[in-house]
């Protein structure tokens, strides 16, 4: 059973050309990957900024802790 056009590997492989799937779509796949990569970085930066702002808001809104009980020990 053969899943490629190659019936025998005992040939000059340079004559066969590319034998991997999606031949000719490399540029499209690279462009899509770069777009996804940049998009992920933008999403990650926004998500981290929201988390940091939430933490800072919690710290600003929380009452100061009383440290007098630990100083008396």
Supply database-style keywords.
single chain; about 70 residues; mainly alpha; rod-shaped
Short description:
This protein is mainly alpha-helical and 73 residues long. The chain is 60% helix and 0% strand.
Q: Could you characterize the architecture of this molecule?
A:
With 73 residues, this protein is mainly α. It has helices at 13-16, 26-61, 68-71. It starts with 12 loop residues before the first helix and ends with a helix. 0% of the residues are buried. The mean pLDDT is 85.
Indicate the low-confidence ranges by residue numbers.
Answer: none
Major sheet details:
none
Count of alpha and pi helical runs: 3
Q: What is the terminal separation in angstroms? A: 82 Å
The oligomeric state is single chain
Q: What's the shape?
A: rod-shaped
Report the order of strands and helices: HHH
Topology, please?
Layout: H1 13-16, H2 26-61, H3 68-71
């Amino acid at each position: 059973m053969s899943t490629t056009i190659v019936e025998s590997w005992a040939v000059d492989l340079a004559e066969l050309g590319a034998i991997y799937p999606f031949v000719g779509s490399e540029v499209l796949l690279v462009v899509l990957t770069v777009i996804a990569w940049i998009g992920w970085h933008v999403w990650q930066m926004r998500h981290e900024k929201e988390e940091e702002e939430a933490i800072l808001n919690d710290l600003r809104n929380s009452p100061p802790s009383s440290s007098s009980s630990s100083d008396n020990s």
